[in-house]
Specification:
Blueprint (H helix, E strand, L loop, with lengths): L10 E5 L3 H13 L3 E5 L2 H11 L3 E5 L7 H10 L6 E5 L4 H9 L4 E4 L4 H14 L5 H5 L2 E4 L2 E4 L4 E4 L2 E3 L3 H12 L7 H8 L10 H13 L2 E2 L2 E2 L4 E4 L3 E4 L8
Parallel strand pairs: 1-2, 1-3, 3-4, 4-5
Antiparallel strand pairs: 6-7, 7-8, 8-9, 10-11, 12-13
Helix pairs in contact: 2-3, 7-9
């Protein structure tokens, strides 16, 4: 296997007490071009942050000795402003708000896709000025003839600009990050409607409908194939239609 690490590769510290998750994340992030060190608890995380000076910490909230919030607070108290991406199995509003309040930069809820973790990491690195030159192109997500520019907040299909509301933009971004994977309403609400939604889950159907109408643009008199597909009883997936769906 080719070693994709380079002297200029960004350094990540992955902290999780579950060996399977920790090893899988580390291997995947190394394959994505990052240098990765790992820690299994809060004490090791604090030592690793001090010794290795990573560009970003991927930090599980539930650790055996101290939670990820405490780790982050201690880092900030000692003047270490390393960006933190929380991994959390919790889906309660208070936990997510707390994570950002103590100095976290973003969060991903378990179960997560590796593609989403990599995308969130690169977005945080860009936002905090720690991204590489190669990361600048990663600001543009591409699926088929659809493009979404995270920095300029613009979307285009077949070269035509699509006018999206902030919520439509976030929904499209989530679908594109998970292109080819079916995501359900609960996952969409959790990632698109900020830190919890206490209203009717039918709002997802409404916004999927809005987004479909905007994405199905007409070029040279012909409507482009639909990209958002419904899996009844399961959720939604963004991909090009299969032959049987034409």
């Amino acid at each position: 296997m080719q070693d994709m690490s380079t002297p200029s590769a960004q350094r990540l510290l992955v902290v999780d007490d579950e060996p399977n998750i920790r090893d899988l994340l580390a291997a995947s992030l190394r394959f994505a071009g990052f240098e990765v060190t790992t820690a299994a608890n809060g004490r090791e995380a604090l030592a690793g942050a001090q010794n290795d000076q990573p560009d970003l910490i991927v930090l599980d909230v539930m650790l055996p000795d101290m939670d990820g919030f405490t780790v982050t607070r201690r880092l900030r108290e000692t003047g270490q402003h390393i960006p933190v991406l929380f991994l959390t199995a919790k889906d309660q509003t208070d936990d997510k708000v707390h994570g950002l309040t103590v100095g976290g930069d973003d969060y991903v809820t378990k179960p997560f896709s590796l593609e989403e973790v990599v995308a969130r990491i690169r977005a945080v690195l860009r936002r905090t000025g720690r991204g590489s030159e190669a990361d600048q192109d990663d600001a543009i997500l591409r699926v088929a003839d659809l493009e979404l520019d995270e920095d300029s907040h613009e979307a285009r299909r077949a070269g035509q600009e699509i006018d999206l509301s902030p919520t439509e933009f976030k929904l499209l971004r989530y679908l594109m990050i998970n292109a080819g994977r079916v995501v359900n309403k609960t996952q969409i609400l959790d990632h698109v409607w900020d830190y919890g939604w206490v209203g009717d889950a039918a709002i997802v159907e409404s916004y999927i409908s809005y987004l479909r109408r905007k994405l199905d643009v007409t070029v040279d008199g012909a409507t482009l194939p639909p990209l958002i597909h419904t899996k009844r009883g399961v959720g939604y997936v963004l991909r090009m239609p299969r032959e049987s769906e034409h």
